[in-house]
């Protein structure tokens, strides 16, 4: 697992901007709401980070418990919380024991792939199983694994503007054999430069189905976009809903 606390403040601010820009939380909230109305519901957001998804889930009417191992990320989340119903807990999401059960559990923006091995993913699915109400649902918001293998997995970069005075270049490399991908984020201003990285290990839908079964869950729905498009070989997203069998 990559160290989730490696981001310094500069990187964190950039991560928050990139995260909001590439995958605004409103998309996730729309997808979740289409399966499970959020108003008045209790949501556990695992790997909440700086809160891009957490805030959107709370804005849709949910009461959210946000868990992350990175204190600086949670500090930024808290600074944006306002009067929304959000509780923040610093913890490792593979080993969480809360006395509460939740209507909805979310792992947004590839957080599921940050549990690096199959065993870690099964532990994480076990955490979901323990904390889900009988009729509850969990939402894994993943990039489709095929996306990582464009250009055969060789390094590919994309640069985005970050506000008016900076830009971020994100370079991905993927390794098919270990199903892992490394993303390096390079944030450049006129006289500043900072970098951070993230390592993830992807799982195919077939592997997720199997691991979910082992953890006492099942895949109840898969779509290819937040808007509910069918999941096909052309999908760039793999949006998985889990429930109890
Ligand atoms: C890809 S980010 C997603 C952040 C947020 N959900 C979003 O939509 O912007 C993954 C988050 O998982 C956190 N994380 C990674 N490993 C973790 C662990 N073992 N326990 C808790 N949080 C972890 C990282 O600190 C990071 O904030």
Question: Can you tell me about this structure?
Answer:
By secondary structure, this protein is of the alpha/beta class. The protein has two domains: 9-145 and 203-243, Vaccinia Virus protein VP39 (Rossmann fold, 3-Layer(aba) Sandwich); 146-199. It contains six helices and eleven strands. It has helices at 9-22, 25-35, 52-59, 71-80, 118-131, 205-214, and strands spanning 42-46, 63-68, 86-90, 102-107, 132-143, 156-162, 166-175, 180-188, 193-201, 218-223, 237-243. Strand 1, helix 3 (52-59) and strand 2 form a beta-alpha-beta unit. Helix 2 (25-35) packs across helix 3. It is globular, with a radius of gyration of 17 Å. The relative contact order is 0.16. The model has no long low-confidence stretch (mean pLDDT 91). Bound molecules: S-adenosylmethionine.
Uncertain runs with pLDDT below 50, 5 residues or more?
none
Specify the structural class: alpha/beta
| Radius of gyration computed on alpha carbons | 17 Å
Number of strand elements: 11
* CATH superfamily annotation of the largest domain: Vaccinia Virus protein VP39
- According to CATH, the fold-level topology of the largest domain is Rossmann fold
**N-C termini distance:** 29 Å
The tally of structural domains comes to 2
Q: Please write the CATH class name of the largest domain.
A: Alpha Beta
Strand content: 25-35%
The shape, in one word, is globular
The hetero compounds bound to this protein are: S-adenosylmethionine
Provide mean pLDDT, rounded: 91
What level of helicity do the residues show?
A: 25-40%
